[in-house]
Specification:
2 domains; 10 helices; single chain; alpha/beta; Arc Repressor Mutant, subunit A; two-stranded antiparallel ribbon; six-stranded parallel β-sheet; globular; about 15% strand; Rossmann fold; about 55% helix
């Protein structure tokens, strides 16, 4: 099971997360909790890095973006899901550049928490629907000004099957692998396999690159 450390300064919120995650069988185990950046630093120094950290964007002694940036430098294999009660273009942009695997609203439902952990654990990226829309807007706004800097041969959309394009459309609209599977009458594992194959086929390493490509090629409606 995925070993997780919760980092949030509100004890009741951590308790709620712990209970919600404990109800998900054979997926994850909470092995530690921290209420501040300093507590997290002490934990990592004493216990080492877990598989995943669920990290609040705002802590009393630190900014979650800065903390995530440092963690990704010191523990490159560590997976991070950010928690936030607010969503802004700047925060999303910063976290995409850092390379965090997930970004989830603190208003998320239990099913969203399960989807986020499951998606990130299996090598994917999880963004809520509102966050996926911001990513798409960022990709559109950048496409004109940065296209001349990209010297890599761009993949051809014709390389994708109709089913793969449908998977891309659902994922770009912020649906998890489980939700996509329900819409397409597939298991979430089949969707995860499709997602992995799509990234490999197109030569991308994460969902942000896939969304940028999908917007540029007109595979999704971003308005």
């Amino acid at each position: 099971m995925t070993k997780i450390v919760l980092v949030d300064d509100h004890e009741l919120y951590r308790m709620g997360l712990r209970v919600a995650i404990a109800q998900i069988q054979d997926l994850a185990e909470i092995i530690g909790e921290c209420g501040s950046s300093q507590e997290l630093e002490d934990y990592l120094h004493e216990q080492g890095a877990p598989d995943m950290i669920i990290l609040d964007i705002r802590l009393p002694d630190g900014n979650g973006v800065d903390i995530a940036r440092r963690l990704k430098t010191e523990y490159p294999d560590l997976k991070i899901i950010m928690l936030s009660s607010e969503v802004s273009e700047k925060i999303v942009n910063d976290l995409l550049e850092i390379g965090v695997e997930g970004y989830m609203s603190k208003m998320a439902q239990t099913s969203d928490i399960e989807n986020a952990i499951r998606t990130v654990t299996t090598g994917g990226n999880f963004y809520g629907k509102s966050i996926a829309k911001i990513i798409m807007d960022l990709c559109v706004s950048r496409s004109a000004g940065h296209s001349h800097k990209n010297t890599r041969k761009q993949p051809n959309p014709s390389e994708l099957t109709e089913r793969e394009i449908e998977v891309i459309q659902h994922l770009c609209n912020g649906l998890s692998a489980k939700e996509t599977g329900e819409k397409m009458h597939l298991s979430h594992r089949t969707v995860e396999t499709h997602r992995s194959n799509i990234l490999h086929k197109l030569g991308f390493s994460n969902a942000a690159e896939l969304i940028r490509y999908a917007v540029k090629e007109g595979l999704v409606d971003w308005q």
